[in-house]
Amino acid sequence: MSEGAGDDVTRRATGMTVRREVLGDAHVDRAESRKTEFTEGFQDFITRYAWGELWAGDGTDRRTRSCLTLAILAATGLEDEFAMHVRAARRNGVEPGQIREVLMHVAIYAGVPRANSAFRIADAILTEEADDAGDSTH
């Protein structure tokens, strides 16, 4: 999507499509069902701008966006969002080895404690994913 592309209606529609592709229908449906009058404006804002502009942009591919997002969330200690985006990264084709490399960079550039927490979270998610797939390695 180009800079300033579309109006709010278009951004919202594009954002919802991209959000569902990246996070999955189940996650988006849960988030939508939990909207309140208080949070509705924020949900609309992130759908239009985070998903309808940034994630829909043509400046880089989704795998790279996922790796960038993982690094930022791990480095800033945003564990719930990090876990959600580990799952999204896998949906976007990021392999476990690539996630490991992202977290190694976090360890050097943002600190070992942040990377340690992120490794713990990612390992649990990847183990669950491997168990669900009947694979003992990840």
UniProtKB/TrEMBL annotation:
Molecular functions (GO terms): peroxiredoxin activity
Using the record's annotation, list all stretches that form the Carboxymuconolactone decarboxylase-like domain: 42-123
Q: Which NCBIfam families match?
A: decarb_PcaC
What protein am I looking at? 4-carboxymuconolactone decarboxylase
